[in-house]
Design goal:
Length: 312
């Protein structure tokens, strides 16, 4: 099987292998109206103790993290409790749903494709508005079955993506997050929504919360003035939260003769991938401010409003 006709779409392969590791889905527990505010305050207070960029420790959604807490280059701090990044909101236990409800979310932005969201619809606390943000709508990436077939046949996967080709090919598709018309339009929709205080707290996610979500988080933190090395640390931390979920798949692939680097490229994140997105952004627009103004149609005044809202 030749790799010349295969174009990877970040996150899509997870549709095929996630069910191997995820157990059944529980229904959210009911809460009494009188306890809602107290529980929300308790959860937010506990979450505030989590270091910036680290998982909130909710087992069903291990890559759910507060995007706040980081210091900017000029000494400001990104506010906590306003914006969260996450992996897919599916197969959530009743206990974990209570913790998510305690965040007091107003809006959930789903960055996945139609196939992804239809396969595993979001499970949300009552009252959270769902907004679909299909950033890859214009992508011409391969059908997920192609990647799934390769993972099922390690010999073919090695031939197509061995020797570092998986990471290289996968990383190049990060350029689409910046350049696709659908990505520009849908990221604009999300960032405009995140600029409305009445719609906060909010959460955005894709399948694993590392690629489409990773670029959104990186672009947003960069706009706010968080240093690039700190932004990269936040991005790479997805490996700590996601890889353990799929260790069984990785071990099985390797035991069958596959190169470990291949599933790690699909399931984890590499520094070069995010650097590729930044390179595309800088090549097309020159700066993060121009990316937001020219690429997303969010002008300087709106950008400053975002800083005023999220920086302390």
């Amino acid at each position: 099987m030749k790799n010349t006709w295969i174009k990877l779409v970040p996150g899509m392969s997870l549709l095929l292998i996630a069910p191997l590791l995820l157990a059944g889905c529980a229904q959210p527990a009911e809460e009494t109206d009188t306890s809602d505010q107290q529980e929300a305050e308790q959860v937010v207070s506990e979450m505030a103790q989590v270091p910036p960029g680290h998982s909130l420790g909710i087992e069903s959604v291990p890559n759910l993290r507060d995007l706040g807490g980081y210091q900017t280059s000029d000494g400001a701090t990104v506010a906590t409790g306003l914006i969260y990044r996450s992996n897919q909101l599916a197969h959530i236990s009743a206990e974990d749903m209570e913790q998510i409800a305690g965040l007091g979310l107003k809006v959930d932005y789903d960055l996945r494709t139609a196939a992804e969201k239809d396969a595993l619809p979001d499970e949300l606390p009552e009252g959270v508005e769902y907004v679909w943000v299909n950033v890859l709508a214009d992508s011409e990436g391969a059908d997920p079955a192609v990647i799934g077939e390769l993972l099922a046949v390690p010999e073919e996967a090695n031939a197509a993506f061995g020797g570092g080709k998986a990471a290289e090919t996968f990383g190049e598709s990060y350029r689409e997050f910046v350049s696709l018309p659908s990505a520009k339009a849908e990221y604009r929709k999300m960032f405009v929504g995140l600029g409305d205080r009445k719609q906060l707290p909010a959460l955005f996610h894709c399948t694993t919360g590392k690629d489409r979500t990773g670029w959104a988080a990186a672009a947003f933190l960069t706009l706010l003035g968080v240093p690039r090395d700190v932004v990269m640390e936040d991005y790479l931390r997805s490996n700590d939260n996601i890889i353990p979920m799929y260790q069984e798949v990785i071990d099985g692939f390797v035991a069958a003769g596959g190169e470990e680097s291949i599933p790690l490229a699909f399931l984890g994140v590499q520094e070069d991938s995010l650097e590729t997105a930044f390179d595309e952004m800088e090549t097309q627009f020159g700066s993060i401010e121009n990316y937001f103004s020219e690429g997303l149609g969010i002008d300087a005044e709106q950008q400053q409003a975002l800083r005023d809202l999220y920086l302390q």
